[in-house]
Amino acid sequence: MSKKRSFTESVDLAIQGIISAFKSERNFKLDLLFAGIVILCGIVLNLTRLELAILFFVITLVLFTELFNTAIEKLLDVVNDKFDPKIKFVKDVSAGAVLVTVIASIVIGYLVFYPHLDFPFRLTIRTLRSIPYHLIVGGIILVIIAVIIIKSLVGDRFLRGGIVSGHSAVAFSLAIAIIYLSNSLIISILGIILALMVAQSRVEGKIHSLREVIFGSFLGIIVMLTIFKLLLR
């Protein structure tokens, strides 16, 4: 008969499980990163307690399904580490549950944030409209030059791998340009999603690490926003 664990021991094991998932699962790391960004945005935009509670519940649900999916996959790998159509079916359904939860969280997040973002977004767009279009192209060129310089300094290859993801840098600089050009919150969100998909593909293809993709993304955003900032003085 197994020894009963105390409450403290049970909590400690649960925390160890979360830490293990964080160390080994890339998707769980991304979920926590986005969760932190969402909560920070909620605080900055001064959301109501009810809105923050809704966001916290949705984030918890996404993290729960991700942990549950990881547990199922690891268990099935122990049961049978060879290809089995039935095991594949279970894994696919489990991953599908995560996808459904993520899609639902995006919709809920949009419904919560839209009233707080619509007016500031339109005000910012009206201000940015005074910037000539050719400066957007110049900003993208500067991003590419910055990537080349950084890779040259550390001796990295230009097209694959390296300390900074050039694809992510350009994708996010284009996302900022789309925000400027579209004058539409929906199109701007789609632009950001496309940039995230580009960044994800670099990690998924094992061309860049998550850190390199984040570095490249921030490089593209910072360069483009710096151009806007300098022109708005």
Folded structure, characterized:
It is a single chain. With about 230 residues, the protein is mostly helical. The chain is built from eight helices and no strands. It is globular and about 70 Å long.
Largest sheet: none
Question: Mean of residue pLDDT?
Answer: 80
Query: How big is the Rg?
Result: 21 Å
Low-confidence parts = none
Brief description of this entry?
This protein has helices spanning 7-24, 26-44, 49-79, 85-128, 134-154, 166-182, 185-204, 210-231. By secondary structure, it is mainly α. Helix 6 runs antiparallel to helix 7.
Keywords:
233 residues, mainly alpha, Helix Hairpins, 2 domains, 82% helix
Chart the SSEs and their pairings.
Layout: H1 7-24, H2 26-44, H3 49-79, H4 85-128, H5 134-154, H6 166-182, H7 185-204, H8 210-231
Helix pairs in contact: 2-3, 3-4, 5-6, 5-8, 6-7, 6-8, 7-8
